[in-house]
Design goal:
Layout lengths: L1 H24 L3 H21 L1 H4 L4 H4 L11 H6 L3 H28 L5 H7 L1 H17 L5 H20 L4 H15 L2 H7 L1 H5 L1 H32 L5 H23 L6
């Protein structure tokens, strides 16, 4: 799961460079989209050619109880112990990830006085941190539980926020953004992976579906909300905004563990 999401980070990191290369070479932003489009066509072709591999059903999957496949209404999902809390935790995590990713360069320009071109490049440190972190996290899953990895990620995010708060040289701010990305690395995949342990295999598909909905809501609403607040006050609010989201996320996930009675999901 961590390596799967690591590939998302690779794409998120490479995409801006593809566009930059296209603009440098031809001056046309359309060429950047054409390149990415050709890559997508290639991926689609590979998936089409690999369809026979997907038909090799796993023996465990074939023996799965039909009751586990039955759709679960949203109201029943919400009645599950810890369901509301895991949705809030997921909402806050995705809000942290996207708000940091989208506003890091603006923070570097508006609060640290960095040149816009340099800030745009250094903001990619967040994506590099999250990508490298997920690559390493894949190996850590062999020794640490999902819960341990999530807590470790929360701690690293907190450390990154501290570096943003302190009146330290510019380099410390850049390290802070990279640390926030590194801390984000295990949280998303580990929350998804631990869902069957927290809510049962039969409920996991429905719970994951609702988690994804909360993720998209957090991604869609919270970065614009910060933009609104920053526009009426200051971009310097970014560390405070992130720490508030992190605090809620930590409390919500702690309540999930308490209510589901699961403290070592792997």
């Amino acid at each position: 799961m961590s390596w799967l999401h690591c590939m998302w980070g690779v794409g998120a990191s490479v995409g801006p460079y593809v566009m930059s290369g296209a603009l440098t070479a031809t001056g046309l932003w359309q060429d950047g989209y054409r390149i990415i489009g050709l890559v997508q066509v290639g991926i689609t072709l590979l998936l089409f050619l690999s369809l026979p591999l997907w038909n090799r059903a796993d023996g465990v999957a074939q023996a799965e109880d039909e009751a586990e496949k039955k759709p679960i209404p949203l109201r029943e999902v919400l009645r599950l112990a810890g369901a509301k809390e895991i949705m809030l935790a997921f909402f806050c995590y995705c809000a942290i990830e996207q708000t940091t990713a989208l506003w890091a360069s603006s923070y570097l320009v508006g609060n640290r006085g960095m040149a816009e071109t340099a800030a745009a490049g250094f903001a990619a440190l967040f994506y590099l941190g999250i990508t490298a972190g997920r690559a390493v996290n894949g190996f850590l899953t062999f020794r640490l539980s999902d819960t341990q990895l999530i807590r470790m990620g929360q701690g690293i995010i907190a450390l990154g926020i501290v570096l943003l708060f302190l009146p330290l040289p510019e380099t410390a701010t850049l390290v802070g953004f990279a640390a926030i990305g590194l801390g984000c690395a295990p949280i998303y995949p580990c929350i998804i992976h631990s869902t069957p342990e927290h809510f049962g295999r039969g409920n996991s598909q429905a719970v994951i579906g609702v988690q994804m909905a909360c993720a998209y809501i957090g991604t869609s609403l919270m970065p614009p909300l910060f933009g609104f607040l920053a526009g009426h006050s200051s971009i310097a609010l970014l560390p405070l905004y992130i720490v508030m989201l992190l605090t809620v996320q930590v409390i919500a996930y702690q309540r999930v563990e308490h209510q589901t009675g699961n403290h070592s999901a792997r």
